[in-house]
Amino acid sequence: MTRFTRREFLASGATLAAASAIGPAAFAQTPGGLLYKPEAGAKLRVLRWKRFVQGDEDMWMANTKKFTQLTGVEVRVDNEGWEDVRPKAAVAANVGSGPDIIIGWFDDPQQYPDKLNDLTDIAELLGKKHGGWYDVCKRYGMRDGKWIGMPLGIVGNALVYRESQVKAAGFDAIPKDTAGFLKLCQALKAKNTPCGFALGKAVGDGNNWAHWLMWSHGGKMVDDKGNVVINSPETVASLEYAKQLYETFVPGTLSWQDPSNNKAFLDGQVSMTANGISVYYSAKNSPDPKLQEMAKDIQHARFPIGPVGKPTELMQITQMMQFKHSKFPNAAKAYLQFMMEPEQYNPWMKAAIGYVSQPLREYEANPIWTEDPKHTVYRDGGSIMLDNGYSGPLGLASAAAMADYIVLDMVAEAASGARSPKEAAARAATRAERYYKV
């Protein structure tokens, strides 16, 4: 049986005080201490992204069953591919019907804030009970002082590599700087053990590393006021670097989506990629002795620091959105709170072996992060990541630019030679200006 610390399972002493301050009077009478009492006869439909780690889905469904047993609310959960969730959420928002709750990506709630219910009371309660939200989660989940999305967690992204192959290339560890990192990739290519990073329409893996690359050299989509500044010398420098990196890649990365690099790594086609913890999980839990042996050789590391001189990592935050078209808003809000409480959240995070890291600081103490040292690098996503709209405001423009893959397309065009770095940066600026209108 899984054991957790007292800190992880007990709510803080401020729970009742917080609830009385911001919750409805019915709080004390609701089952399980939920802030909202579900409507009589309520039924919910939840749309979420398809798992990469089986334990994630299994525990999510087990927790959902617990919610039904506690409240009597029947919940249907549908799982869709990562690339399919965003357009389905947009359709639901536009037509005013569909799932009650959709678990989507990045700042998607900022695209249709008027279609979403206010979750401020639940978010404030959870923050007071569980150590507070990371600042980046507040930026993603809030608009005009209100919570319009409930950050579920951060699908951590890190370098996943074969330690033996990195050492065979003459390196004891992943270099801490981008210049050394390029030399490593070139050495891996020379040893016929190339690396590979997604350049297709990959919601997570492609966007994550492409933004890191641009930011690491000082480039960014917009400045602090939302003016488009992507066509800059710093961005062009990052794209020149991308061209050199691309020469070390295994063929085919221009069409890679999120599952592609997992497969390439586990097939032995690449020695290094950027991914969540799912590659390690798959190898470690495979019945194939060769993959089990590979798992022993897998290591994880943070991305190197570029000329800008500080960490510049993007990871895909996933948020729960509760739509106004729901016929059972109280039941939906109760479900959101229930899934975020430690009795459900900690076992879920452990079952997924840390595939999703916490948005609430208290859950840093989950034993999953230290029981295997290879997990630890994924713990700190919320404390180190930048948001995808950096360094401007999050909102309709940043969400639309992200959904349009502007940065990822720019990197792919320049890296592959389809356009020169200057041409790619200029085209990205033109595309961005359609959304960031002064």
Automatic annotation (TrEMBL):
Keywords: Signal, Transport. It is found in: Periplasm. Pfam families: SBP_bac_8. Residues 1-28 form the signal peptide. The keyword Cell division does not apply. It comes from the Bacteria. InterPro entries: Bact_solute-bd_prot1, SBP, TAT_signal. Belongs to the bacterial solute-binding protein 1 family. This is Carbohydrate ABC transporter substrate-binding protein, CUT1 family. It comes from Noviherbaspirillum suwonense.
